[in-house]
Design brief:
This protein is of the alpha+beta class. It is built from 5 helices and 6 strands. Strands 3-4-5-6 form a 4-stranded antiparallel β-sheet. A two-stranded antiparallel sheet has the order 1-2.
Length: 174
């Protein structure tokens, strides 16, 4: 027994079959192409998340992996100028400190408040708690002030502020 279908119906069925196959293919591939969740999924603004990421990288130290890996991790969260400051100013001091105290620590960083906002640059106060503080350290936790900058739509660390800068800034914001 042979079923006879008009050519118009056959064409419609073929088009429907192609559409269904394309839809199945799209649904199968789509999850692979979905971007990772943005930083705002943490409930933080992108600038606050940048401050947290940078300070986390800065205070995560391991003398066994060496200074180059530390610089790489911190620079991944920093502007070009911020990375140059890390390499030129902080790295030698951090390297000496890591070697002297054989530091192996990570940290927890929480944003406290936005201190200053000049649209493209913002200063965040964050709280850092070290999981393995080393001997001679005054406290295992402290507040840190970090300047982040919007670089082509991505927030990155410019620098961690020095105590004198923090005093001036905090005095002006109160």
């Amino acid at each position: 027994m042979q079923i006879a279908m008009p050519k118009k119906v056959l064409k419609i069925l073929i088009v429907l079959l192609v559409v269904v196959l394309l839809a199945i293919g799209f649904l199968a591939i789509h999850p692979l192409q979905t971007p990772t969740l943005p930083a705002t999924a943490t409930g933080m603004t992108p600038d606050a998340q940048a401050a947290v990421n940078a300070v986390t990288a800065f205070y995560t130290l391991n003398y066994t992996t060496g200074i180059d890996l530390w610089v790489t991790h911190v620079c991944a969260t920093a502007t070009e100028a911020g990375c140059q400051a890390i390499k030129g100013y902080f790295a030698p001091a951090v390297q000496a400190m890591m070697k002297k105290h054989q530091i192996q620590t990570s940290c927890t960083v929480e944003p406290i408040r936005l201190i200053s906002d000049t649209n493209q640059n913002r200063v965040w106060q964050v709280h850092v708690s070290l999981d393995h503080p080393w001997s001679g350290l005054n406290a295992s936790s402290q507040d840190v002030y970090v300047e982040v900058a919007d670089v082509s739509g991505k927030w990155l660390m410019n620098r961690i502020l020095f105590e004198q800068e923090v005093q001036r800034l905090v005095t002006h914001t109160h």
